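Our consortium's second objective concerns turning raw sequence data into structural hypotheses that experimental partners can test. To show how far this objective has progressed, the report includes one record in full. It was chosen at random from the queue rather than selected for favorable results. The single chain below, 622 residues long, was entered without modification.
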Amino acid sequence: MADITQNFSQLLLTYGPGAMMDLPDNAVVVSGLQDWDYKGSNWKPVEEERLVALLKQQLADKLSPTFAGLRHPPMYDEERRDSNAPGVGVRLFPGWFLVNEAPRKGTDMVPAGTAPAENEKRRRMVEFSELDVTAGGKLSYTGAGSKIGVNPIRFVGACTKGHLQDIAWRYLAHRGRDQSCRKPLYWVERGVSSDPSDISVQCTCGASISMADLYKPKFLGTCDCHSPWLTPRRVADETCAEDLRLLPRSATNTYFAQTVTVISLTKSDDRLRQTIAENKTTVDGIRALPNFIVVLRAIPQLKDAFKDFSDDAILQALNSDDSSDGNPSAHPHIAEFDMMATGAPVIGSDSVGSFFYGETLPRDALNLQSPWDAFLQGVVRVHRLREVTCLYGFTRLEPPPTPAESELDEIQLAVGGADLARNVEWLPAIEQLGEGIFLNIAPDFIQNWLDAKDTEDKAKNLRDRERRDAARFNREPSHRGIAYWALHSLSHAYMAELALECGYPLSSLKERIYSSGPAQTQRFGILIYTSTAGGQGTLGGLSHMAVRAGDLLTRATRRLTLCSNDPICAEHSEGSEEYPLQGAACHACLLVPETSCEARNTRLDRGLLTRTVFENGSPLLG
């Protein structure tokens, strides 16, 4: 089989362990971490101690006692294309196939005397054990003396806990009939509509089942706890009370990655910290020695790396690292906000290997007009940042809550997802370098708006909608507050305006919203950034838009007063039963690509920012 490559982002967000993938010749499921094989290559650790501490605390039962931290996925090596090349394993799934060639009378595919109805397409259903496999991995079925190509069946069974299995087609087709029948099965399609009622599975004995029946609640029974990406695929004592549901392999709800992302922090000497991080494993191995510094200076690898730093600076940096993690349950946004909102002229270090480098722009350089002179407390031009994203699980059918939905003072990871391995010794992560703009928003401006009577009434309505949305997924509601809704809406409008000016498409921009709750230390801010894998990061087109923050915010909010889909868009300010977390927001005004939004395009309402054709309250910006 030819080499199939995916970039690191795809492996974490789209095709991680347990994800179904269509290859040119086969359909597969991506194997768990036990089959991510580095083949003796030196795997590269991703050093981010804050994130590792958080994972250990909140995923304690799902991680091995010897959990070693974060790693980059195996990297494709063009010079090693044999069986010893590093790579990510896959497993054949599903195990049922449809024969490509139309059945002919008098063969095992259509017995003599059987004729298909008008506008009916019949294809033989076969299992993997009935197929031939070539040396290149291609599958075929031998019928009537010739080899015929096959395609994997489109439907499988899954549950909300991530389990995945083949549908028991033979059992379901013979419900209430002879279960010992082993006569050929056929996939029968009538017409061209692909409506479930026009698709059926039929046996030559006369038994059949309609695809529409398989969509009925509880029709498929309970889940059998199969995890075909893990070893073993099923644990003997494992149980699952979830109902098995029919799932098209190409559906958008087949895989929801559970990830957590942090922005790396800067320290007093970021270059030294980076050097320690790059050699952390070796440094930790010798640090307990009484003559630690002498040994460090004697090891060739460390001698060259630390030659520019004094003994005292190295010891001080190591001691600082030991005490900097704080409470691992604290939301990563807090440390990030506090770093960027210091008001210092220079934040971080402009040196090779620096994790973060930013400049707080002087207010006179911004030329802010009303209301932005009162709204913005500061603007930071972020020349360089490092983003670390870790995959720790996934769900199917229903999306999990995101870390962005946690209260700002404490992050709660969704621990109910499927496992990436039976024994999780490490987790895959990627680091990306980029640039951005941080808007530090004045707490007094937000507080004055929150104290208004109209705002309080609207906040109660939003809490009720958040409660209704949580009830749909049978989980506890997370209340982010009306300030989050307003800042999130402003972030989307600002991103769209930046995309017209900075040279990056909207799909390349990302956001982080900093919004504290009623009983928390007031922190309000917006970080718009872009990042990419690789050693060079980005080119500065976004960060240099920081000096024009006031002008771009004015243009962004002016566009929100009238949407091309008004009055229909504005009428949805109160949400709907189906989408309670979406107010006056649509693809013409506030919705952005899913990769850009930290909350899956929810908690948006332009009526919270400006007056719309139906909004008569007190919007944030008048």
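The partners drew two points from this record. The chain has a mean pLDDT of 86. Residues 138 and 280 are 45 Å apart (CA to CA). Both points have been shared with the crystallography group to help prioritize constructs.
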